[in-house]
Amino acid sequence: MLKTHHCGSLRQEHVGQQVTVAGWVHNWRDQGGLVFLDLRDRSGVLQVAIDREKQPEAHALATQARSEWVLQIVGTVVRRPAGMENPNIATGEVELHASAVSVLNRAKTPPFYINRDDRVEESLRLRYRYLDLRRERMQRNLILRHRVIKFIRDFLDAEGFLEIETPILFKTTPEGARDYLVPSRVHPGKFYALPQSPQQLKQLLMVAGYERYFQIARCFRDEDQRGDRQPEFTQLDMEMSFVEREDVLQLIERMMIEIVETLTDRQLLAKPFPRLTYQEVMERFGSDKPDLRYDLAAIDVSEIATQSDFAVFKDAVTAGNPVKAIRVPGAGNQSGGQLRKFHSAYEERVRAVGGKGLGYLVLPAEAGGEVKGSVAKFFSPELQALLFEATQAQPGDVLFLLAEARPVIYGMIDVLRRSLAEEFNLADPNTMAFCWTLDFPLMEWNPDENRWDPSHHLFTAPVPEDEHLLDSAPGQVRGQQYDLVCNGYEVAGGSIRIHRQELQEKIFGLIGLDMVDAKERFGHMLEAFTYGAPPHGGIAPGIDRLVMLLAGEPNIREVIAFPKSQMAIDLMVSAPSEVYPEQLEELSIQLALADEAEPE
User: Fold this and answer.
1) Separation of CA 306 from chain center
2) How far is the first Cα of the chain from the last one, in angstroms, to the nearest whole number?
């Protein structure tokens, strides 16, 4: 080994010992007769002092060193002089007095600072990702990711789960996103697909009798990118036999609580996790993944609004649409002009998601004051009092009033809640607000295709007491689906699965998949179900999203070693890239690209 100790491991108990360390120059300071280096490796930073009089050869080398040079240093650990300790680093009570310095490698000046957490344009960070990963923040994130995955493996091993790998090259199946296809050289014209998830395979493992399976699974989906998506991502894939929904929920909830409390200093908002129905979260929060760190819940005030003189509200209720109110605490303590700008800004946001407008009322800050706002004149004092009582409004609050058809009003509620929480800093960044969303509709009507679509996936079982409605009212059937939500993100989704062939075939029929096509795509599963498939269910927490939330990062690229950009490009290696013509020939593939537009 080129070092006896890690830089960040030296403490007072090492004083007097001769050690050898190696790492990167983090900082460099030449004070004439003394050169001070901060040497960094993965474990931390150590201050090194090189004295010109005592060690002239080492001092001469140290004066040449610059940031990110790789050095090996031999020296003696000493206690820092009183008053010179550095409480900001773990090694701050000691330093290394060097007797020998070796240059293991020189470095060019990096394109951005490694030793500071400055804001750096993301494309530059991704181009030089191997340098970005040297930064303390990124190393902290990847170490946390490692610990989360290790914790999961140990936890599930103790619960009797087996870790089993499933194929990366599989068969294309409809799972809600485009597949990444891999051409076969030995079978010209045929393709593998990279798995969007190991869904079918984990169900087949239950048929095979393994009862408790998990995998830290790589998954691939060709879909539009956003902050919590990547073309390739990692999930904890799990499946259990002979379980009901409650068994899965309790296991995952216990694991999540232990991860947060063991590996982080973040606070859980509630234990046990709240359980909310799909209908409830949509009506109150406009989203099936609500952020519960703040309230801003929508209150149904349709009965009060229909008694007002405002035709928009009366017509909405007559048409069967709701009128909702959202209370914004303290927002009324602004001047009239500021309030109008405040309202206009949020009205613009709801218009962007399909809303036609946004009414508002301002409660006076003092008793006896006048209620103001764009719709105040349409509500009598008695109706105003009923609104304030229904929403628990306080003096100085603003009430936003919305009236639209579902699901437009859901989008309006969601955008208002998220925007208001951001403007007023309502979401505590140190809080983890988990909840379960349950009782999703099993099917959603697709008017473009004139058929039903599964709201989760093809293999989700209906709630037993709703199964009889599949023939007469599929839209009223609840699925045995469950989502785990945290801070406005879905961090896990799962369901109890269909394990009977006849029920699976009925679902295929509802979504317009004829049995010839179904057997072509899923014949292996349908046949497997005839050989004694046990009742089973599972869930798939997203590792990237979970670690993102635990680390307090704004997107999952910050917790993945080598992510793709927002445009699904690996900027470090310039992928995707063109391939050689002979490679295409081997695969019996001929490209038919559109001609480039000729210059004018």
Assistant:
1) 41
2) 64
- pLDDT band at 595, cuts 50/70/90? low
Residue 487: count other Cβ atoms within 10 Å of its Cβ: 22
Distance of alpha carbon 583 from alpha carbon 30, whole angstroms = 56
C-beta separation of 456 from 479 below 8 A? yes
Q: Tens digit of pLDDT for each residue in 94-143?
A: 999 999 999 999 999 999 999 999 999 999 999 999 999 999 999 999 99
Cα–Cα dist 529/527, whole Å: 5
| pLDDT at position 17 over 70 | yes
The residue type of 250 is: Q
pLDDT, mean of residues 175-182 = 83
DSSP label of 568: S
Residues in the chain: 600
Q: Where residue 175 falls among pLDDT bands split at 50, 70, 90?
A: low
Mean pLDDT of 34-43: 96
Name the residue among 141, 220, 183, 179 with its Cα closest to residue 561. Answer: 141
Per DSSP, which regions of 298-427 are E strands?
298-300, 323-328, 359-362, 398-403
DSSP letters of 412-438? HHHHHHHHHHHHTT-S-TTEE-EEEEE
Q: Would strands 162-163 and 94-105 be described as parallel, antiparallel, or unpaired?
A: unpaired
Token pair 């072509």: residue: 520
543 in Cβ contact with 506 (< 8 Å)? no
Which tokens is 82 given?
A: 């009183």
Distance CA 227, CA 560 (A): 12
